[in-house]
Amino acid sequence: MGKQSDLLQGTLDMLVLKTLALGPMHGWGISQRIQQVSEDVLVINQGSLYPALYRLEQQGLIKSEWGSSENNRQAKYYELTRTGKKQLADETDNWERLSAAVDRILQTT
Amino acid sequence: MTKLSSALRSIFQKDRVERDLDRELSFHVEMEFEKNVARGMSPAEARRQAMISFGGVEKFKEESRDVRGGRLIESLLQDTRYGVRILLRNPGFTFVAVMTLALGIGANTAIFSVIYGVLVRPLPYKEGSQLVVIQQQAPLAHVDNVPFSVKEVLDYREQNQTLDAVVEHHSMSFTLLGNGEPQRVQTGVVSANFFDVLGVTPILGRTFVPADEEHGSDAVLVLSYKYWQQGHGGDPNIVGRVFQMNNRPHTVIGVLPPIPQYPVEQDVYMPTSHCPTRSSEQFMANRNARMMSVFGRLKPGVPVAQARADLATIAANLQKQYPDSYPSNQGYGAIASPLQEELTRKARPTLLVLLGTAGLVLLIACANVANLTLARLMRREREMAIRSAMGAGRGRLIRQLLTESTLLSITGGLVGLLLAAGGLQLLVTFAARFTTRSSEIRIDGFVLMFTLLISVVTGLVFGLMPAFSSDDHLAASLKEGGGRTTSSAARQRVRNMLIVAQVAVSFMLLIGAGLMLRSLIKLQSVSPGFDPERVLAMRISPNWSKVNSAEKVQQLFDRVLAKARSEPGVMSAGLASTYPLNQLGITFGPFNRGFQIEGQPIPDGELAPQADFRSASPGYFETIRLPLVQGRIFEEKDDDKALAVAVVNQSTVKHRFGSEDPVGKRISFDKGKTWITVVGVVGDAKQYGLEREPSDEIYIPLDQGGFAGNLLVRTSADPMSIARLMRDAVYGVDPETAVDRVQTLEQVRDDAVASPRLTAILLAMFAGLALVITGAGITGVMALSVSQRTHELGVRIALGASPARVLGLVMRQGMSFVLAGLAIGIAGALLMGQVMSSLLFAVQPTDPVTYLAVSLILMAVAAAACFVPARRVTSIDPMLALRSE
Hints:
The complex is a heterodimer.
Chain A: H1 11-21, E1 25-26, H2 27-37, H3 46-58, E2 62-68, E3 74-80, H4 82-107
Antiparallel strand pairs in A: 1-3, 2-3
Chain B: H1 2-12, H2 14-38, H3 43-54, H4 57-67, H5 71-89, H6 91-120, E1 131-138, E2 143-146, H7 150-159, E3 163-177, E4 183-190, H8 194-198, E5 204-205, H9 210-213, E6 219-223, H10 225-232, E7 242-245, E8 248-255, E9 268-271, H11 281-285, E10 293-298, H12 304-321, E11 333-338, H13 339-344, H14 348-379, H15 381-389, H16 394-431, H17 445-469, H18 474-479, H19 486-524, E12 535-541, H20 550-566, E13 570-576, H21 583-588, E14 592-594, E15 596-597, E16 610-616, H22 620-624, E17 628-631, E18 645-649, H23 650-657, E19 666-668, E20 676-682, E21 697-701, E22 710-715, H24 723-733, E23 738-744, H25 745-752, H26 754-788, H27 790-798, H28 803-836, H29 848-870, H30 878-883
Parallel strand pairs in B: 4-9, 6-8, 16-21, 18-20
Antiparallel strand pairs in B: 1-2, 1-10, 1-11, 3-4, 3-7, 3-10, 5-8, 6-9, 7-8, 12-22, 12-23, 13-22, 14-16, 15-19, 17-20, 18-21, 19-20
């Protein structure tokens, strides 16, 4: 495992939304995907993941449905709603602005 | 919308939602497990790693649940169910807690219903807060309630700028014929618009209209609700019935609803023009013929202060205009006070003391239940630790404890409500001694809301005390196996503090009750100055329209007296204008008249000495055994043809004659026009209350003037047994003479101390309650402390301490808290005493006897309460105690 980083407050929601933008997925899949894509830098603590999922569902950004997993088990699949897509776009914009700003500061010598 | 549906789903499809959560999580763990197996771990290791990576499943399930809506309601339902279960499983604890709370809440509910009904609830009149009582005052003569004359009523009605209406009221008693025996009815004589100004709607018929008040109109009556019920059995066809009164037919036109009446309760009401006194030309023309009380209604938006200023201006003008009627040496003014205040003035201090007392009892009850809860919590520490380990946060645990305590307090509140409803009648009777509003006391929506409120607050108070005394020692207590743990020490401290507080508050309550009792004993041992034993008193009221001259009155009274004396069992009889401690006399106050002593002229502009003016027949002094001090008392020869004579009491001699011998001196009530010779001095009687100083009294013989409508007879047997005989004797003399207020002088004397007695009984009940609750609390705390120290005490005994020594050790520890409480209680009681001083008679609020007695009682009860559990230490078997570790 590579060096792990704590997630910034609120970024977990954005990562989950981004991951689900690729297609419906269950909780475990989401955590694996984030870990893989971040090359093990980001390890999602399950203790934060599921409450985050419920919270997002509560806010109407994602919806869930029971379906069969790749190995034929019953799993709960989450997918983005219309508002979720909009929210993701907004948050991505925000994030890019923020990280660009942080980058500029850090690169100023 | 989604939120709501999710919340509803969480509550109503709880099982499914929970199952979904389980399934989802187990899927996650499965996947993790498979991944680990695929990496080549053994299945067991793979599972272990999967679980570790997941973390605490239960804790996190709890967090996931929290995110969902409806969480609060759901957990509340769950807590309630669990709370009920756990309370039912501890019936002993639950019973004691519920009963303690029920007594505390019940006492408060009952007192509150009285306070609300009497002091707070708006008067049952239209916009009752706008109604004011107007009073004339003569401040320099120390008279703060001078009645009004007809001219004065008119002046204030016409000249004021701040009142919508000014109405008058006076009370007369007339004899009503046509309803069985002649009845003396207390009659309110009022302006025609009186009831309209009050905003009272009759329940039957109508009230007065201006035409009823015109001269020469037909005489009409409106009945009070109480008189209609008691005198006429609530006859629904009463309207239109005709009774004879004052030699005229009077027609009933209406019945009032049950409303508080001020200043006294009336049987019937009539318009001013039909009162023979009030409507006489002579009376109406005389500015100084004062008899009426006056009410007004403030104009909308006018504050009382403005009305007061307005009235003061009118008074100043009147004083300028008619200096003879308002002598400057007496001072003159007029004020307005809210009717509600006037109605409840006498009740307020007593009721507030009772409310304070009930509040303190509830505090003690709270402390006790908090203590019990703490003790139980110590035994539940393992449970709490497990719940915490299973994912319950601190807030969640506190919520659970609060739910349990609120359940207890609400149950206690319900039981308390029943207790309050049961005891309410007693309190209504009690309040009736202070105010005519007592009939309005009931348990209504407001009182129920109050009960609910104090129940919930009580639950939170005694629930939070234990909840916050537990710090984060839960994990520790689990590790140590739940025996003696660190948090126990903290809790024990809180429990000890609660005991100190309980003892302190109990002490204050006991002091309050003790002072009241001491005061009552003092009051009861006050000699009334006469001998009330075996004396019957009754009021006799001739039909004035037939017995309409002084001569006829004299004849009638002579015949009544002769007839009374001839009855078997009567030792002596007399007539008097009033008798000592007569309730009506107390209500209406002394009949003061100015007089002067021959040779002591009153300088111009100075107030004449005042004395309470009485008339009495021969036989009156002997009958009530008012002792003769000097000279002689009235004899049959003192009639209207003989020398005018008077008898004075010792108090008058002391205040007015000084060292001179009063017998043979002459006094005058009419500025020297006629003179009356003092022939005797009698002892002082407590005329207006046992707690009052005797007033200056001057008696004149009945046959030389005045009117004496009270017949008193001294009997050889139980006076009540000849009550019927005496009534018939009077009817035998004149069938149209009304007889009422038949009572023995012993009853009269008991009545005079009835309100302090009831106050003392109520306070003593509350204090006793507090003492019992506190005693139980001490026992509980000591029992737990002893059982926790069994090991330590066992070691001491094993090392050679004698059981007596160990017992002393435990007792000393227990009593040290009691002593601390006592010290705080003394400080509190000294502060509280000031509040009580207005209720006390001949007892200082710092009365050392009471303080000493109460301290001893409290110490004795506390020592007993400590001893019961402490005694157990003597039976500790050191070996067993040591082994139990």
